[in-house]
Amino acid sequence: MLEISECYNVIKKLGQGSYGKVLLAQNKSTGEPVAVKLVRKDRTQLQTFLMELSLSITLSDHPNIIGTYPIFIGTMDHFVLSQELATAGTLHDIIQSEVGIPEDAVKRCALQISWALDYMHGRGLVHRDLKPDNVLLMDKDCYQIKLSDFGLTKPVGTNVSSMSHIIPYMSPELCDLKEEQCLILDPTIDTWAFGVLLFVILTGYFPWLEAIETNTMYQVYINWKQSPHRSPLPAQWEMFSREAINMFGNLLTPCPSSRHPVLSVFDYLTLPWKRNLLENGTNLAVEEEEMEIEVVEDSQ
Fold first, then answer.
1. What is the torsion angle, in degrees rounded to the nearest 10, for the CA atoms of residue 33, residue 90, residue 152 and residue 32?
2. Residue among 129, 149, 186, 190 flagged as catalytic
3. From 40, 119, 127, 189, which residue has the greatest number of CB atoms within 10 Å?
């Protein structure tokens, strides 16, 4: 049982949530700046914390997953782990409302996040909490980013129950779970969250707040997806190129078995994702009537 001050010189607080906080600190033994994560003991069991710590250490060898040091301490009130410092904050910090971030930076994010998720999925793990706050930046232009926060990570095949509240990144099968129901965990849950995340960082807003039938924006999307030749393209999707719409359609498919793997974004990285882009001085705008949307039909 130690105090933080015995191991670290605390410099400032980097963030805080309901389960704890993250501090910028200097390791007293090495002099190295680190991010120190304090997890509240009254909100987290020791076994749960040790599972997160073990997963974080195991996944640290991937270049796009935050490094975690193989040691922890306990204070009177917190479990404490230390990680490499993300010097440029989180992806959430650089998203401009109603604007997003530059397309080139979005594609760099897509490449690195999909690598990290594929690495996890290949080891039989599902992240379950993909969102901009959990993507850490080593530079503001997203040349090096790292996936973090494995507190909700579980093995594929685990039975998971409904969450206490719905967030925009949750897949429809999670949103539909009733209190007494369980879902067998599958990597396609991350695939859906990945699609929503790409939309958010491209636009600066959510495609919908909840992937449920009573949400108008989500229902309009589903109506178009089911009948693309009879229903108009939803207004918030009109800024995207034909190729980007195909990409999103493959990731954001309501039927989990029809979702493409996260690495499918590789097929679109060299193509424009927004309309009216200028490349080498040439306007790449595509007229609406010339667009032929290719859609992967959902299995019934």
1. -10
2. 129
3. 127
Query: pLDDT tens digits for 202-221?
Result: 999 999 999 999 999 999 99
Mind listing the pLDDT tens digit for each residue in 250-299?
999 999 999 999 999 999 999 999 986 444 334 433 333 333 334 334 44
Count of C-beta atoms within a 10 Å radius of residue 128: 21
Which residues have a Cβ under 8 Å from the Cβ of 190 and sit 6 or more positions away?
Answer: 117, 120, 121, 126, 127, 128, 130, 262
Contact 84, 64 (CB under 8 A): no
CB 24 within 8 A of CB 35: yes
Query: Once rounded to an integer, what is the mean pLDDT over residues 144-167?
Result: 93
Cα-to-chain-centroid distance, residue 291: 30
Q: Are 144 and 109 in contact (CB under 8 A)?
A: no
Whether 298 is catalytic is: no
pLDDT of residue 280: 37
In the numeric block, which tokens belong to residue 68?
């975690």
Total count of residues recorded for the chain:
300
Burial level of 205, CB count in 10 A (0-12/13-18/19+)?
A: middle
Who contacts 96 (Cβ-Cβ below 8 Å, separation ≥6)?
Answer: 204
